[in-house]
Amino acid sequence: MFREMVRYFMAIGVVIGALAVPVMADHIGDAEKGAKIFKKCASCHRVGEGATHRVGPHLNGIFGRPAGGAGDGFRYSKGMIRAGNDGLIWELDKLEAYLENPKALVSGTRMSFRGLKSHQDRRDVLAFLRQYSDNPADIPEASPTAAPPEVVLSPETLALVGDPEYGEYLANECTSCHQRDGGDAGIPSITQWPTEDFVIALHAYKVKIRVHPVMQMMAGRLTDEEIAALAAYFKDLE
Amino acid sequence: MTLNRRAFIGTGAAVAATLSAPMVMGAAHGKPRVVVVGGGAGGATVARYIAKDSKGEIDVTLIEPTRKYYTCFFSNLYIGGFRQLSSIGHTYGTLAAEYGVNVVHDWAVGIDRDAKTVSLAGGAVLPYDRLVLSPGIDFIPGGVNGWDVSSQNKMPHAYKAGSQTELLKAQLESMPQGGTYAMVAPPNPFRCPPGPYERVSMVAHYLKVNNPTAKILIADPKPKFSKQALFQEAWGTHYDGMIEWIGPDFGGDNVTVNADAMTLDIDGEETKVDVCNVIPAMKAGRICELAGVTEGNWAPVGGHTMQSRIDENIHVLGDSCSQGDMPKSGFSANSQAKVAAMAIRGALTGSKVFPAKFSNTCWSLLETDDGIKVGATYEATDEKIAKVAGFISKTGEDAALRKATYEESVGWYAGMTADMFG
Questions:
Q1: If you ran DSSP here, which 8-state letter would residue B395 be given?
Q2: What ipTM is given for this predicted complex?
Q3: With pLDDT > 70 as the criterion, what percentage of chain B qualifies?
């Protein structure tokens, strides 16, 4: 439980914490340290002059690029294409959230990377990658609109165990669109997710890190107990 | 008796779906009884949820005249050629066979609120402990000068899906080259606020391919309409010059039609038209009036339970009720039905009741792979169902997002109809 709490806190709290303080572009992090950390990424991603797609897309110009928008025929996951269609742009906060926990931001992403748990590591890698993006000129000032409202999730909240009966009632609202049998044409399946992924995803919509407008609206009024209840219900739905 | 009935329902879908009314009456013995009038987004959903969640403790009877129900939502896509009519038709076999709902194909013609009974056109009288009315809409007589229900075979409304929709599509397809398609749009409030304008988009899509010199004329009594900026942007982009919208400033609220001469008179100026799609002013389905639960044109309800303000043993769902901020849509009716189902189960069996929550989203198709949406969430206050938050598609969105929005609507249709019919 403690591990889950910590990961969860990092997924939401740290990202928000990072945004609460305005940071100048030059001070995203330490690009030299970031170059070393990037070696973890380099087995799949290339960056710099002449970089091409490998297992993952090249990362030149990643800042400000729409999700799924590298071009040159790179084959993205369905989840990444959907996120891009929903309007996900790789701004600083989104990149940091993705590096922290890829699946919390984009369900079904093929980036099978556990994430960088250290806030400083993420900032350093992004400072390194920033050197290969021309636009926007000044990232934090150019993209402040994505800053989510300040939310503090207490450990008590994070430790909540959902009530599946309440979840079943609340789920009635979900199943007007999401198919109960797990069908995913047009609208993603939400059944049988691991509880943690489900909870993180809904909180990410709630604080508007995830971008889909319907889901931001639906999650926006769910309490922490309700999110836990929904996660508990959908987890076991056959 | 009870055993027989259980076994009977458990075995045959087709048979159960055509149960005759007297057998239903005989069976309802000892258990609380819920009768639902209307098998659309509100009625089918409430019947399914009560039957499913009460696990046999409540006897549910659904009264719906048609054996095959065509959804109004997506019927415009049939007009545009994006769907087959058969793909929006649904039957009640699963509700009967898998959920144990007594489905009776008949008209409800009277309600005795003191005796708590519903009488059917076929002569049966069904007792209820709770009654749910979800009959959709009817038209206000005299709403459009020169039009009454007897004109509907010449000037179809196509605002109840099925044969009317087929007729309108057939008329569209037999228009002469360069002909005129006219629509008389309804005043507020009415079923499916973006519906007339999505329909115009679908008609334009058809004409652009098959009859590109044809014109579309909309006479509208409203100064503005749902998703207006989005529709008008699309009409300019996709169908430039084809569609003329005439609002009340130019006489769109002063209209007379002549079904025999096929003319449309707007503010004294008569036009000969080839198709005239008249969507008249609306009111609650007639059974609500017969039950005496209407005030003005609609049936007022409280948002916490969807109970009638006039009779606490009656719940009114969907287009027929006046509840506050929710638009009249299938999605709204489905959302309201779940709140009502919970409240009814709570009242009849003591099951847990949670606070009411509502939501709505309406997708509209503008042109191939160009979808938009509008939606909101709602909560119940003592006064009404009140809007909490909302969103709407933006003008100038890129093609990939619009395509994804359309695909989302197709996914929604599958989810929604599964939620209604099982």
A1: T
A2: 0.74
A3: 93
